[in-house]
């Protein structure tokens, strides 16, 4: 089988590997679609994502969907050919979380994640024609949700988790700063959860166009000097740019809430944070998700249309080109998708 594998900074290859065989409790998937994420780009560009550094070749990809190809011993409740997606996180060990964060498995001290070099050996992702997956990480797709949309369930779960960090969003005014793929999905998730007016802000017309298609009521083009709105009750910061924090905190209403969704650097940076204190803001983080991938699948089943976030599609053999497009701010891309299976074999 073929697999999209990063061997080092700038060194992406389509490797040939043996097709795996599912062991007890495992499912063999024939993957069909995968979405490119910022971590995939980081491994390709830098050989690292955050504090996770490549030590060995790594198969990329954690936003994937496909069909059940074979079942290992002991697996029940799934049929060959069933379209599914994957919950890409698996906590390591039997560590009991403190009562204050009980059930928040995204905060487990050690988590293996598809397409991650955080552990040695690394955890290969799903940008390959086949992959074995523990059965408890399989999520069947609802009737009417195909595998391309199913591959969006993981990033939509990230957005739903972030929106869920703010209780009682119904009818409230929301600002989403940064309208990349996650920011645009935040727009859709906020509207889905009942937000009133949603304003999206970004530096590029193409990103704002996607945000509007995903349900943004207003947009602000910061590259043209358009200002952020004022006195916004709930702000989702999705750019991860430290230079944006000063304006974002000022846009929040006094006593308001800022949810940090965009990954901030793990190294010292310069940022203007004074309004955090003087406006008495609540600034909270949002990291991955717990089980919101199930909520994402229910939302897709019930008609939430997030397809406008998809702007480009590439076959697996053009993965390097796909990553370059996803990484280029001038390409007009939002979510770039990889077709992981041969058209002749894909259902």
Automatic annotation (TrEMBL):
Record field: transmembrane: none
UniProt xrefs under Pfam families: ADH_N, ADH_zinc_N
Keyword Repeat listed: no
Domain named Alcohol dehydrogenase-like C-terminal: residues: 181-298
Cofactor(s) the protein requires to work: Zn(2+)
Entry keywords, A to Z: Metal-binding, Oxidoreductase, Zinc
SUPFAM superfamilies: GroES-like, NAD(P)-binding Rossmann-fold domains
Residues covered by the Alcohol dehydrogenase-like N-terminal domain: 23-143
CDD domains, alphabetized: idonate-5-DH (cd08232)
Family, similarity comment: Belongs to the zinc-containing alcohol dehydrogenase family.
Listed name of the protein: L-idonate 5-dehydrogenase
Organism: Streptomyces zingiberis
